[in-house]
């Protein structure tokens, strides 16, 4: 299973890189805005910095919602760095653009997936990744993890190479359940990745080991 970090914060990305388990990064316009990155030049330069930090796929989202605009922005993003994956929203022109990018060998991540039908359509268009949003479905009383299960099953039935990238993963149990269901990738904030480290019995056991060592060794 691949671990992506869902942030545009360079410090968090660096910390995840140093942990040695990071496979990539996902961003979106809200995450870029959170870091105060504004204007095309600043955005492009920020993506370049992220790509230089991480040896893996970096999803950079287009803002355009019309076919020509998505193609123009996506090609400019893809030209920035070989790690860039063009993130395209699940809309009609987005699907057409994913088909175009796929024929050109440009990697894509189809975002804002909330149904199995949307995921199937993106896979047929040749998306490299689909991003179903687990937490946002839970927020409205649906079962986000059930959608992960459905998509994993459908892609497996037909051998689609499109990878299931579980997004809007908010806590450790989400991540573990995505792993149990066979999601190819999870993307989540740093605290969810580092949350995997913790168990009170680990802390208690280590304290006992160190105390016992000290009793004998001083
Ligand atoms: O990758 C999508 C993610 O950024 C959405 O997460 O927590 O805003 O629903 P959230």
From TrEMBL:
The taxonomy runs: Bacteria, Pseudomonadati, Bacteroidota, Cytophagia, Cytophagales
* Molecular function as annotated in GO: aldehyde-lyase activity; transaldolase activity
Name the predominant localization: cytoplasm
EC number in record: 2.2.1.2
Q: Which NCBIfam families match?
A: fsa_talC_mipB
- Organism of derivation: Hymenobacter mucosus
Recorded catalytic reaction(s): these are: D-sedoheptulose 7-phosphate + D-glyceraldehyde 3-phosphate = D-erythrose 4-phosphate + beta-D-fructose 6-phosphate
Q: Where in the cell is it found?
A: Cytoplasm
Pathway field of the UniProt record reads: Carbohydrate degradation; pentose phosphate pathway; D-glyceraldehyde 3-phosphate and beta-D-fructose 6-phosphate from D-ribose 5-phosphate and D-xylulose 5-phosphate (non-oxidative stage): step 2/3
Protein's name according to its UniProt entry:
Probable transaldolase
InterPro entries noted in UniProt: Aldolase_TIM, TAL/FSA, Transaldolase_3B, Transaldolase_3B/F6P_aldolase, Transaldolase_AS, TSA/FSA_arc/bac
Question: Which Gene Ontology CC terms are recorded?
Answer: cytoplasm
Family indicated by similarity = Belongs to the transaldolase family. Type 3B subfamily.
Q: Which one GO biological process term can you cite for this protein?
A: pentose-phosphate shunt
Function field:
Transaldolase is important for the balance of metabolites in the pentose-phosphate pathway.
Cross-referenced PROSITE patterns: TRANSALDOLASE_1
Q: Which residues form a coiled coil?
A: none
**HAMAP family in the record:** Transaldolase_3b
Keyword annotations from UniProtKB, A to Z: Cytoplasm, Pentose shunt, Schiff base, Transferase
- Catalytic positions are 87
């Amino acid at each position: 299973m691949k671990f992506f970090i869902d942030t545009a914060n360079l410090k968090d990305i660096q910390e995840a890189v140093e942990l040695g388990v990071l496979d990539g990064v996902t961003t979106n316009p809200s995450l870029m805005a959170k870091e105060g990155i504004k204007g095309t030049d600043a955005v492009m330069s920020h993506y370049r910095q992220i790509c230089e930090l991480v040896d893996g796929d970096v999803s950079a989202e287009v803002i355009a919602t019309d076919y020509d605009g998505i193609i123009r922005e996506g090609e400019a993003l893809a030209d920035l760095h070989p790690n860039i994956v063009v993130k395209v929203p699940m809309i009609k022109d987005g699907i057409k653009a994913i088909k175009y990018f796929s024929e050109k060998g440009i990697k894509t991540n189809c975002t804002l997936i909330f149904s199995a039908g949307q995921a199937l359509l993106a896979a047929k268009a040749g998306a490299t990744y689909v991003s179903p949003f687990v937490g946002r479905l839970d927020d409205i009383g649906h079962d986000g993890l059930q959608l992960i299960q459905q998509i994993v099953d459908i892609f497996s039935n037909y051998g689609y190479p499109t990878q299931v990238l579980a997004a809007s993963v908010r806590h450790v149990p989400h991540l573990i359940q995505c792993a149990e269901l066979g999601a190819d990738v999870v993307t989540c904030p740093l605290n969810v990745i580092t949350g995997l480290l913790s168990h009170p019995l680990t802390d208690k056991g280590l304290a006992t080991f160190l105390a016992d060592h000290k009793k004998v060794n001083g």
